Amino acid sequence: MTIVWDQLIVENILLAGIIVGSIYLEQWGHRRSQIIEERKTKGRIIMYLTDDLKQRLNFIDETHKYGDFKPFFTDMWDVIILAGKHALLPFELFQSLQRTYSWMKYYNSELDSRSDKTLDEKVLRELLEDVRKSIIRSLNKLNQTEEINNSTEDRQIEEETIDLTSNNVAKTIINQVKQALEV
User: Fold this and answer.
1) Is residue 116 part of a domain?
2) Is residue 14, in this structure, part of any structural domain at all?
3) d(CA 62, CA 54)
4) What is the pLDDT of residues 83-128, one digit of tens each?
5) Which of 16, 26, 128, 173 could make an S-S bridge to 21, C-beta 3.0–4.6 Å?
6) Do 88 and 41 meet the contact criterion of CB atoms below 8 Å apart?
7) Which of 148, 174, 17 lies closest to 90, judged by CA?
8) CA angle at residue 34 from 30 to 80, to 5 degrees?
9) Using one digit for the tens of pLDDT, what is the confidence trace for 25-77?
């Protein structure tokens, strides 16, 4: 029984390549699924915030129309912050949204501080106009972000499958890893 060292070395190298390749592909697939999930979450957050800010503009119009000063509800923005999902947004967009919701909270605090006194409608109307301007700036930033996302969606990577039925599994895995790295 002689050991063919050359054959043993080549087989072990191929086995090591298969193991390393499969680990790499598993990590790559996991990271790719995370990125896809983050994109979906970011899209939902942007969609929600856009809708929420548009509703706030309607709320301001109704307040001016009826003279009924009520507080803004900002609890969903607080949930986005507490969940850490704000990190998915570009910094400039986050900064703009944070300023907008801060204006809403400032308006709420002014409204609360004047609840026992008579309301100074002029001050509250000025605050509402500041909130409106901030909302419009944030909506413009959100629209710019949506345009950027729509332009990058066209370049998404297609799903790849691994063919394990091939006789030469090692070559197939290595070729697919090379293709994935080139993308």
Assistant:
1) yes
2) no
3) 13
4) 999 999 999 999 999 999 999 999 999 888 876 667 678 888 999 9
5) 173
6) yes
7) 148
8) 155
9) 999 999 999 999 999 999 999 999 999 999 999 999 999 888 888 899 988 89
Distance between CA atoms of residues 103 and 97, nearest Å:
10
Q: Which pair of structure tokens corresponds to residue 178? A: 């090379």
Is 24 a domain residue? no
Residue written as token pair 């039925």 = 165
Q: What is the DSSP string of the chain?
A: ----HHHHHHHHHHHHHHHHHHHHHHHHHHHHHHHHHHHHHHHHHHHHHHHHHHHHHHHHHHHHHH----PPP-HHHHHHHHHTGGGGS-HHHHHHHHHHHHHHHHHHHHHHHTSSS---HHHHHHHHHHHHHHHHHHHHHHHHHHHHHHHHHTTPPPP-----SSS-HHHHHHHHHHHHHH-
Give which of 176, 179, 141 is closest to 22, Cα–Cα: 176
In the chain, count of helices (H) and strands (E)? Answer: 5, 0
The domain containing residue 94 runs over which residues? Answer: 41-148
- Based on the structure, what is the number of domains in the chain? 1
Two tokens, residue 51: 């809708």
Distance CA 171, CA 58 (A): 61
Rounded to two decimals, what is the model's pTM? 0.68
